[in-house]
Amino acid sequence: xxxxxxxxxxxxxxxxxxxxxxxxxxxxxxxxxxxxxxxxxxxxxxxxxxxxxxxxxxxxxxxxxxxxxxxxxxxxxxxxxxxxxxxxxxxxxxxxxxxxxxxxxxxxxxxxxxxxxxxxxxxxxxxxxxxxxxxxxxxxxxxxxxxxxxxxxxxxxxxxxxxxxxxxxxxxxxxxxxxxxxxxxxxxxxxxxxxxxxxxxxxxxxxxxxxxxxxxxxxxxxxxxxxxxxxxxxxxxxxxxxxxxxxxxxxxxxxxxxxxxxxxxxxxxxxxxxxxxxxxxxxxxxxxxxxxxxxxxxxxxxxxxxxxxxxxxxxxxxxxxxxxxxxxxxxxxx
Length: 334
Description:
Layout: H1 4-9, E1 36-38, H2 52-55, E2 62-67, E3 70-71, H3 78-94, E4 106-114, E5 126-134, E6 145-153, H4 158-161, E7 168-169, E8 173-178, H5 180-194, E9 198-200, H6 205-216, E10 227-232, E11 241-246, H7 248-258, E12 264-266, H8 267-285, E13 293-298, E14 302-305, E15 309-312, H9 318-333
Antiparallel strand pairs: 1-12, 2-8, 2-9, 2-15, 3-7, 4-5, 5-6, 6-8, 10-11, 10-13, 13-14, 14-15
Helix pairs in contact: 6-8
């Protein structure tokens, strides 16, 4: 394992676990390009849930990571983990690694559970890590400012959790919002403490196409914003992006003519849907989008960028989007 000094600056793109991956590849619906997927399910019963518990996750840009299973992690020790992580950040701050040079902050760490973010009873409850601060010059009773958030989750990740030893906890998807220096230091502590590995999670053009089709099929308010697809044109001296906006009702009408199996979506349906959009664009602008690279999808449900950036826009479909992201994270670590 790398030293703390090295790991604190950047999360490694890949790392060999000292104890190795405790599972083999799982065959089934998880994979790089499955032939079919379930559409985002109807929202689970939230009778005992507090909507404010997850409302803060909406309309923020989250950077995606995959995380290998955590060794000897326990939901009953979250307060203790917060104290240990706080001490670790303080130690790294003394080295000038945890915060920007010249910035003096009193950083408070909170680690809590988000039990609402589950796809099934077999899923582990999501874990939220928050860093807040108060400047030493501020009054003691002044309000603390949230400076960084990150959370681990697994939504319908049963296929993975059933194939790991008892000492491991499966929370394969990690999302971070805030300065990269804090993502790095928090990730470094989790890697050292639970022998896990963080890795940036990119989204391929193929999976962006799946997202465009799946999210188009979701029912939303009639005032929903347009679906926007952004394409990057390759092999040019200067970067050039093409933005393609489709009225949500037109996109939904097209999808309804393509989608055949209720509650399920197939690769063939995704291909037909995208081909129809490409043909329409070519008919009007004489540009073949099939020769470009799809880099971003924005809908009323969520927006996703190929670099692994996601923004959730509809609370009722939050777990549905997380289900697909969990699948992609599991595919990367297997």
